[in-house]
Amino acid sequence: MSAPTAARNPFIAPAWITVASIVGLVSALIGDGVFNAVSWVVFAALIGLFVRAWVKRDRKR
Amino acid sequence: MQRSTLKAWFLVHKWTSLVCTVFLLLLCLTGLPLVFWEEIGHLTGADPEAAPAAPGAQPQNLDDLVNSALSQYPGDMPLFFGWDDHSPSVYVNTGARPDTPPPEMHTAILHQYTGEVLPAPQFNEGVMYFIYRLHTDVFVGLPGMLFLGAMALLFAIAIVSGVVLYGPFMRKLSFGTLRTGRSRRLAWLDLHNVLGIVTLGWAFVVGITGAINTLAKPLEQAWQTQQLGEFAARYQGRPRPERLASLDDAVAKARAAEPGMKPAFVSFPGTGYSGDHHYGVFMHGSTPLTERLYRPVLIDVETGEITARPQLPGYMTTLLLSQPLHFGDYGGFPLKVLWALLDLLTIAVLVSGLYLWFKRGSTEARITEIERSGLNGDIANGAGVAR
Questions:
Q1: Per the CB < 8 Å rule, is B335 touching A28?
Q2: Which of A33, B44, B252, B344 is 20 to 30 A away from residue A43, measured at CA?
């Protein structure tokens, strides 16, 4: 994960995360049931992104 | 990005973060138990369990419930009457005078169907209330609220400037890069970046809505002056009525006037929510969105007739909608758990930011660090990285 790669737009991930967060925040506000579930999935996925990064962390010296 | 621009953003990020971090830590730590206030209330008995209503049972007369509450606190007058949407209980706030502030109010909780007074500690006492005051106004009222609001705004600026710096730093790195085997500082820097970006949208919205919530008092006052003032003007010079029309009838009229809604709470005359001559019956919907949006029905306390059903102004709607988005109490228990986890991750962002500041070196070294990372994805070979 840490190997230098070709230049990319580093703002793509933050943009997606922002959009997902807004969907998660608004969804449960619109209704119950499936709308709540969408919020849960979105925020669990965001936390999952950090867990994935931690599991795949580069321990090379 | 030019070095001078990068440096400007770096300084904005550094100083906005530094100024607000200690207060944000306080807000995040105190916010954690507040997310579970309802659950903690049930566990500790602060939020009493009301037995389900018997089949076919009718709610008690509201005037009787108010009288029952007043008998608990002789000499008090009724201030607010409210319904619990999730239990067959109601609450009555009382106080020595109409403008009694919340810390001095008394509260009685009653079973809506049996009229039984449920044993419950006061909402303005105990550990949770202490934490709540720390979180909202650090015990100094409006100045404390506004100060914490300013800190929340600085936090929002710190997030935006952090994202701007994230770009050039991550240009040659994959999203989620976390290098823990090299220097300790690099590990904390990567952790700060990953957590900061993962919590970006959530933290920004919670920060901004927190800042809006700190304006609750001024906005409520503006609304009272602007909208309620119109109605109050019609009653200018008339003394506040001694005898009040039936609350039960007033609420029934409000229900009939707003058939798709149910009452959330009633303000009594003089409390600031409905002038000196009206009950304010605040109706709300039943969906997560509409239950936050109140529709006041003003009922003359002498005649018992509806005077007006004003629409809340846009700024009050913004305030009311910002509350759930800050508290996270609108998507069931799983959302509360996720809210708490995101709160913990935000605490980690703040702590890692503090660590990076302690191990900061010079500003020029940090700018070079960002530029070097953007060129080859590696900052470990030089650039003054503390090992």
A1: yes
A2: B44
